[in-house]
Predict the structure.
Amino acid sequence: MPLRRKSYRRFKDLVSVEQIKSTATPAADGHIDKSDPSNWEEITTAYANIIPQTSREFWQFRGLRTDMTHAIEVRYLENIKNLTTENRLKFGSRYFNVTGVFDMNEEHRVLVITAKEAT
C-alpha cells in the first residue's frame, strides 16, 4: 500500500507580526500606550488562516462590548515561534493581541497562535 502524504492547509490571509518599539516612550504613568500605532513596529509578515473561536457580548461601563477570540494558524517559522503576549498581529485594519502560541502536534510545521481581537 503506497504511503499517503499529509495534506496541509493553504494559508490565505497575509498578517503582520508586530512588537512594541524599543524607542517607545512611556506615558506619564510609566506605561506604554499599546493603542497608539506609532509605538509598534513590524517584525515579519506571514500567510495565515484566521479562525474565529468564541464570541460573547457583555455590558461594561454603560455600553455593550464584544469579546472575540481566534486561532491563527501559520507555518512554523523561527521568528514567530517565540511570540509572547507582548506581540500582536495585524490583518488589514484588524488587530489581534496574542494570548498564546503552540506548535501543532509538535511537528514544527504549523504554529497555532491564540489571540483576542482588539476592539
About this structure: The chain has a mean pLDDT of 86. The CA atoms of residues 19 and 113 lie 15 Å apart. Residues 13-24+31-117 form a domain with the Thrombin, subunit H fold (CATH 2.40.10.270).
